[in-house]
Every structure is written in structure tokens, then in C-alpha cells.
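Batch manifest, entry 17 of 40.
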Amino acid sequence: MTPGRVTMYTCGPTVYRYAHIGNLRTYLMADWIRRILTADGNEVYHIKNITDVGHMRQELVEAGGDKMIMAALEEGKTIQEIGEFYADCFWRDETHLNILPAHVFPWASQHIPEMLEMVGTLMEKGSAYEAGGNIYFDVNSYAEYGRLSNNFGGDLLEGVRAEADPLKRDPRDFTLWKAAEPGRDVKWDSPWGEGFPGWHIECSAMAHKYLGERFDIHTGGVDNVFPHHEDEIAQSEGAFGNRHVNYWIHGQHLLADGAKMAKSAGNVFLIEDLATRGFNPLAFDTCV
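Output type: C-alpha cells
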């Protein structure tokens, strides 16, 4: 690594709805880390992705759900319009919180070639396999799988990945590229047929493009530890053969009324909600 220069990647928003203050607290954490490093005399190069594709979990595929497509249908807009609208809202919220803008905000949908290249590399190295038009990462090809989350072998947390996929060689294997189901509009050509990327490959591909095979800091929410970041480590190190990230830093869940803030729990607050109640958005910076 280069002395005095810090490379940093933050898992950014999935732009199909507003970011609530629990989401934004994680981005505040990354901003504080960046500011402290800068104040200490370092040059920080910060990447924060925008997820508008690649977020699909297998169980959502099986249930016929796609966050971006469902949001577009519900609001009567195109997927591009949905993504641009909620990305603008996210950037507005970050501005209200005085969060420094990332140097690059790469959009997942604009980096499909990089994802396909990485999947191809994993196939060539024997770390991935094709089954039914899908490409899966072979977890058994990576001996250190589980080191970030401390989930190993048969001890993998039940219910975290609810994939019932008979095409897999091992239930722990995860999807790198998913074959497009009949009637799907959002799809891309690939060497394995039309399809779309899995949830995890996007960050590995974009981090590699902008930060190289190894970088200093990767931040995200604690809910990203497993399986997202665990799988990201496996596929990146499987592709490049060396350590992927020096330091992983995760923000804990924000509690509201004693429970994790989540849309499903009905305890979500937006920055606009705080302003409506008479709070300056910057006051949120000082209380988290």
C-alpha cells in the first residue's frame, strides 16, 4: 500500500426507496473515518457504489421479486427513473448531514462488463461452475470461507441464506450470474446466456476497477457481514489470489423503540421526518 494514501470502499444504497436514518448512520460512520484519516494527514480516495442491479438474493428470484422492478411497477416509472430519483434523494440526504461526497459513485448497471470479466476469471481458475445457465462460486475452492463472520462449515447461521437450489453442488455456494427467467426485461448477454449478476459480484468488480486487487478499508452495515462481505472476500481473493481488504469496519443497527430500525418493523424515520419535527438534520450527526 502507499504510505499517506488510504483507499476506501463503502457499500452504498440500493436505490429503490428512501434511505432511513439507520442507513444513513452507517454512511456517517464512513464519513467520520474518512475525516479522521484526512485530519491525520492522509489522502483518502473514497468509492461508494450505487446498487441498481445485482442485489438479487436467490429467495427473491424464486418468489418473483426484484426490488427495482417492483418499485418501478408500483410507482409507474422505468427502472432508470426509479434509480435516478432515489439516488438524488440519497445525495440530498448526505448533503443535509454534511457527509463528504465520495470521489466516485459507480452504478452497478454500468459495470456489467467488469462483473462478467471477474466471473470468467473465477471460471478459468476452477473457483466457479455452470449449472442450468447459472454460475455459482464453489465455496469449497476457498479454504478460508467464514473467517470474517466466523461462520464455518455446518455452523453457517440458519435462515441467513434461505436458498433451496438443487443446481448447487454445496448449499453454501452462491450465485455469481443468474440466468434470466422467461419474460424478464432487465437482463444482459453473457458467455453463458442472457442473465443478470448476483448480489455480491458487483462490489468486487467495482472495487477492483477503482481501487485495484487490494485496498485499505471496506465499510458497510453489520447486516452486510454475512453473506455479502463474506462472499465478496471469497470471490475477490479467489480471482486475484491475494488479500482483498486490510480492514473491514461495520456499523451496528440503529434501534428505534427498542427494535432494529426497519421498514418491516414500522419504526423507520427519514431525515425529512426529523426536520418536520423541528430538528436540524445536523443534530443527528451529534447523537449517533
